[in-house]
Amino acid sequence: MITVKDTVHDHIEIDGVAADLVDTPAVQRLRHVKQLGTVQLVYPSANHTRFEHSLGVYHLASRALDHLGIGGTRADRIEAAAMLHDVGHGPFSHNLESLTHRRTGKYHDDVDELLATGAVGDVLRDHDLDPDRIAGIVAGEGPYAGLVSGELDVDRMDYLVRDAYHTGVPYGTIDTERFVRELTFVERDEIADDGGADREGPELVLDEGNVQTAESLLLARALMNPVVYTHHVARISKAMLRRAASELLDATATTAAELRRMDDHDFLAAIRDCRATAELSRRYDERDLYKLAVWAEYDDVPDRVHEADHAGETALEREIAAEAGVARDHVILDVPPEPTMRESTARVTVNGEIRRLERQSPLVSALRTAQRNQWRLGVYAPEPATDRVGRAAAEVLGLDPDGLVTEVRGAMPTTLDEFE
Fold first, then answer.
1. Rounded CA gap, 40 and 38, in Å?
2. Measured between alpha carbons, how far is residue 176 from residues 84, 184, 255, 334 in Å?
3. How far apart are CA 166 and CA 150, in angstroms?
4. Are the CB atoms for 321 and 382 separated by under 8 Å?
5. 31 pLDDT tier (thresholds 50, 70, 90)
6. pTM of the model
7. 279-335 tens-digit pLDDT
8. pLDDT at 191
9. Angle at 25 between CA 19 and CA 27, to 5 degrees
């Protein structure tokens, strides 16, 4: 058994297959992949990594399995998946995933080949575990996979409290102990509004009297989003690194598959050494970031921009640059995906009936409105060109200049009735 002192969960005891997986190269690599990517440029203490998060996810999964009375091989599978759930992440976590997916067809939870070969595959087989089955659990497939990858999974329980702790932002605090104690599995034939019929095995739900427990997860995520995850400085720096990654692949022999296996240090070294990306690298290293030229709300952005694919966005960037009379690489268009709230489909038990949280909680509707109100399209450019690029972007994208956000401020106190 290994005992690790953790900032969030105090002492974590690691045993069995998980203890043997900790020292594999695939898991140790996560020590060099930051959990929050570039958020450290906003919150200097946000330097925690995917490695410690993986230990936390394992810890919560193990606690949940004990509470649920699940043991033996089934527990070993879940614990192995919890420890390995992030080994597919590329440098700077989710930030480069859209790029690598376009070129490899793989997301971070597509880990079949990573688990089947090398030290990880050897450890799993030594414990009589099928690597393909563990990879399926990481991807949310199979019985009990919802504990690791689902609407109420231990992954989001850990990252919310861990991100809140390391940024010093209190909004992500949730009661993980209560969550773990109140989880239960039910058979699908007991769920009247089963929207997950395509999945196998029993469904993970919160036991009776836990609507507020589920709401706390939604609220924590909703409050952390604008203050941490989508802070404008973090978004600008992430967009600059995505541009650098794309140019690195175009200018060198580096493949997307190789990029996907880099850690943060490997990637930063690669873009420093590449002539095509050296300027973006310098700007990131010195925090000499592009500035906001446009910061537009959801309803002020035309549908054609919302619906544009990567090629369409690239064409719009070129058009904006030409209209503004600046170099193509001095314009970055950043269109976030459509707002989603996966947690709202989590199920809770109310008066003996299993219901979707969105059906039971009026808070869901308010938070969806807040989420849409927080959504922003960004256009970024070097500071001397921001005014010109902003005017050109408004023209090219068809934005109402009066609808543009001209000031970015921190979170403001509000009440839920303001969203009605």
1. 5
2. 21, 15, 40, 34
3. 24
4. no
5. very high
6. 0.91
7. 999 999 999 999 999 999 999 999 999 999 999 999 999 999 999 999 999 999 999
8. 66
9. 55
Question: CA–CA distance from 175 to each of 10, 14, 357 (Å)?
Answer: 15, 22, 18
Distance separating alpha carbons of residues 273 and 142, to the nearest angstrom: 44
Closest by CA to 397, choosing from 297, 290, 291, 317, is 317
Read off the amino acid at residue 197: A
Q: pLDDT tens-digit profile of 167-194?
A: 999 888 899 999 999 999 888 666 655 4
Query: Could you give the CA distance from residue 144 to residue 146 in angstroms, rounded to a whole number?
Result: 5
Q: Are 135 and 112 in contact (CB under 8 A)?
A: yes
Residue 90, C-beta contacts closer than 8 angstroms, at least 6 positions apart: 33, 96, 97, 100, 108, 259, 260, 261, 262, 267
Q: How far is CA 110 from the centre of its chain?
A: 15
Tokens 């960037």 found at: 317
Crossing angle of helices 232-251 and 278-285, in 10° steps, is 150
Contact status, residue 345 vs residue 361, Cβ threshold 8 Å = no
What six digits make up the tokens of 289? 């970031």
Pairing mode of beta strands 183-186, 203-206: antiparallel
pLDDT tens for each residue of 359-399: 888 888 899 999 999 999 999 999 999 999 999 999 999 99
Q: What type of residue sits at position 117?
A: T
**Length in residues, the chain:** 420
Q: What is the pLDDT of residue 210?
A: 87
Residue 137 to residue 374: CA distance in whole angstroms: 33
- In this structure, what token pair is assigned to residue 57? 């996810």
